[in-house]
Amino acid sequence: MTIGAFVVARLSSSRLPRKNILGILGKPMIELMAERVQASRLIDKVVIATSTLPSDDPLEELAGRLGIGCYRGSLDNIMERITGAANIYQCDIIVELLGDNPLVHAALIDDVITFFRNGEYDYAATITREYPVIDSEKKLFSLGVRVQVYSAAVGHKYPDYPEYIGNESKHPCAYIFDHPDRFRIGYFEATGKWAFMNRPELTFAVNHRKNFELIRSIFERNYINDRNFSLEKVYEQLDTQKYLYLLMGNE
Question: Under a CB-based contact definition with an 8 Å cutoff, are residues 107 and 37 in contact?
Fold first, then answer.
């Protein structure tokens, strides 16, 4: 079984244009993310999944320079883009990652993949408040480090749910996790060694300039000493530099 990590990214974001290639320590943000993903023990291929818009040409050029894959597909139909990439790169298992989640760590990716395999799930993901799970007992992760794992076969079922295609109010994988009666869903909780991330009110997603400043501050403190610094280090930094909390969320 070939496992591909597909980093979904585009440069035409209205809130923070070109955010994926904004520079940190002399490198585009998405390059720093790719380094962290490539540290995975279980991923066979890393691919940037972007659109065919000319504005996304720099992402293809960057992928070529880094020696990783790049697939260009629909701007709006993200599942078409991801599954098309899985076809081209001959991947049986899809690890979907968001290009504005640069702190995602290989150790977390590997644990979710293992959880997915051991549970024989159709879809597994780090559980956050973004999911329609009414269960107050679940230990939720912070936002902005989401890992989603699903079989390519399940990904290809998206045309069966046309009401989800191009629906901006729905996550591209919502047709899967909205239908637990049809798919076997596994939620990976922030417990055990990941209990420190059971802080669902926090978010590391880069949507605005201040969010980027948060990420830049984190990399500037940690990257030079350890290019694959842990998520524990991130939370330690937050608790010693509490002003960083102000850089989370919307403007």
Answer: no
Question: How far apart, in Å, are the Cα atoms of 167 and each of 78, 124, 157, 163, 171?
Answer: 10, 22, 16, 7, 8
β pairing state of 93-98 and 148-151: antiparallel
Closest CA to 244 of 104, 109, 115, 103: 103
Q: Is the pLDDT of residue 251 over 80?
A: no
Phi, psi at 192, each rounded to 5°: 60, -130
Specify the DSSP class assigned to residue 95: E
CB-facing half-sphere around the CA of 119: CA atoms within 13 A: 20
Please list the alpha-helical segments (H only) found in 50-208.
57-66, 78-88, 106-119, 152-155, 174-177
- Cβ atoms of residues 59 and 18 within 8 Å: no
Q: Is the pTM of this model over 0.90?
A: yes
Pairing of strands 27-28, 185-188: unpaired
- pLDDT score recorded for residue 168: 82
How many residues can be counted in the chain?
A: 251
State the alpha helices, DSSP H only, in the chain.
29-38, 57-66, 78-88, 106-119, 152-155, 174-177, 209-222, 231-240
Residues ≥6 apart with Cβ < 8 Å to 1:
92, 93
- Residue whose token pair is 């069966």: 160
Which residue in the block uniquely carries the two structure tokens 């509490």? 242
Q: Residue 133 has what pLDDT?
A: 73
pLDDT digits (tens, 9 = 90+) for 119-178: 999 999 999 998 887 666 899 999 999 999 999 999 999 999 999 988 888 889 999 999
Q: Tokens standing for 30? A: 């998405």
Structure tokens at 7: 């980093």
